[in-house]
Amino acid sequence: MSLIFYADNLVYQSNITASSVNAQFPVDNIKDVRRTKVFKSLSTSAQIVFDLGDVREIDSIALVDSGVDSFGFDSLVVEMSNVNSWATPPFQQSVTIDAINGWANISLPSVESYRYVRFVLTNTGDNVGVSKVFIGKSFYNEQICFTYPIDYKQRNNATVSTNRYGQKFFDEISSAKEISGTIPALDKTEVEELFELLDLVSFTRPLWLNFNGLNIMLDANRFNGCYYLKEDPTVSLGVGNFWDVELKLEEAM
């Protein structure tokens, strides 16, 4: 299997503007790490421009839904340019949306350099909504990947109460994914690369994961998403000076 990491999210440092904004759901909600904090427009179409402040390297764009509702759009076209003018953008690509797993992404074949990223969105509902977005460079090293076994749990966040007759009442809100496993046999360079990724997010920002090419599920997107470290990584040094790193992750909600 191969595991792609997204950690250095340029969205947090960007200036975000939109063509239509519901004042109760401003565009800066996209920067809020809580997935339920969403941007909403006042119409069924909207354009969102991310000004990254300078020309930055980009090879990946990813989105997740709010964790409570599905995506607030039916179609998304990503455009990129070095000027905030969109008549003929040098980059333009439609995004495939996996509404079942709440995941959408673009992986470019090579790193591009742009200052502005624009989302062109449409929706058949009352408005356009966007939860969380990643824009930036991915990290991939075939050695930095989980070994077997991988533990996966779909944690139901429902609140259950019981009355005096023993009847149960359910407040079903959402479920959250949990993944744990070990990344084994890393040399000193590889373990330093992994630490640098984890330092970028710590416990306060999500680490985005793309289980690209996973061949143990019919639908690898089931595992994709943004996760928090559930606890400090456990790092073990073994024979030959190779490191094993145990990670426990819980889906950002």
How does this structure look, described?
The chain is built from 1 helix and 19 strands. By secondary structure, the protein is mainly β. Strands 1, 11, 12, 15, 16, 17, 18 and 19 form an 8-stranded antiparallel beta sheet that branches. The mean pLDDT is 93. The relative contact order is 0.21. It is globular, with a radius of gyration of 20 Å. It starts with a strand and ends with a strand.
Q: Mean of residue pLDDT?
A: 93
- Tell me the quaternary state: single chain
Radius of gyration: 20 Å
Count of runs of 4 or more consecutive helical residues: 1
List keywords for this structure.
8-stranded antiparallel beta sheet, mainly beta, 253 residues, single chain
How would you summarize the topology of this molecule?
Blueprint: E1 4-6, E2 15-18, E3 39-40, E4 45-64, E5 75-81, E6 91-94, E7 97-98, E8 103-122, E9 129-130, E10 132-136, E11 138-139, E12 151-156, E13 159-162, E14 168-171, E15 175-186, H1 188-201, E16 207-210, E17 225-229, E18 234-238, E19 242-251
Antiparallel strand pairs: 1-11, 1-16, 2-4, 3-9, 4-8, 4-10, 5-6, 5-8, 7-8, 12-15, 13-14, 15-19, 16-17, 17-19, 18-19
Question: Care to give the gist of this entry?
Answer:
With 253 residues, the protein is mostly beta strands. Strands 1, 11, 12, 15, 16, 17, 18 and 19 form an 8-stranded antiparallel sheet that branches. The protein has one helix spanning 188-201, and strands spanning 4-6, 15-18, 39-40, 45-64, 75-81, 91-94, 97-98, 103-122, 129-130, 132-136, 138-139, 151-156, 159-162, 168-171, 175-186, 207-210, 225-229, 234-238, 242-251.
